Amino acid sequence: QVQLVESGGGLVEAGGSLRLSCTASTRTFTNYAMGWFRQAPGKEREFVAAISGTGGSTVVADSVKGRFTISRNNAKNTVYLRMNSLKPEDTAVYYCTVRMDYSGNSYYTNLGEYGYWGQGTQVTVSS
Q1: Tens of pLDDT, residues 72-125
Q2: Quick one: pLDDT at residue 111?
Q3: What gap in Å lies between CA 56 and CA 18, rounded to an integer?
Q4: Distance (Å, rounded) from C-alpha 77 to C-alpha 84?
Q5: What is the dihedral of CA 34, 15, 88, 108, to 10 degrees?
Q6: Is 114 helix (H, G, I), strand (E, B) or coil?
Q7: In 3-state terms, what secondary structure has residue 59?
């Protein structure tokens, strides 16, 4: 079992920035790939970004490429999502997730590849 706690969401104007954090309650954080997904009202949960257990491999969705960056600090059991140049269409609940097996330098982009989820943090971008 692992708990994921997200923070850093809020209300921001278009063009602004936010940094989301997700801290995991696991001793073997370094082994596990992590991801961020988001879900807007009336829409399905969609992939945003992913990072390998080592942090050596990352990927972001095309819709956020060049604006969002995923990173992790394994010493703090924390993964981050830096969001710049935010747009109203980025408004959603953002969820942190972890794949609880050794991933090496692999990342995962499909919702079904992950097992544990945080409670989500709301990001609202005003126009």
Answers
A1: 999 999 999 999 999 999 999 999 999 988 878 899 999 999 999 999 999 999
A2: 95
A3: 23
A4: 23
A5: -20
A6: coil
A7: strand
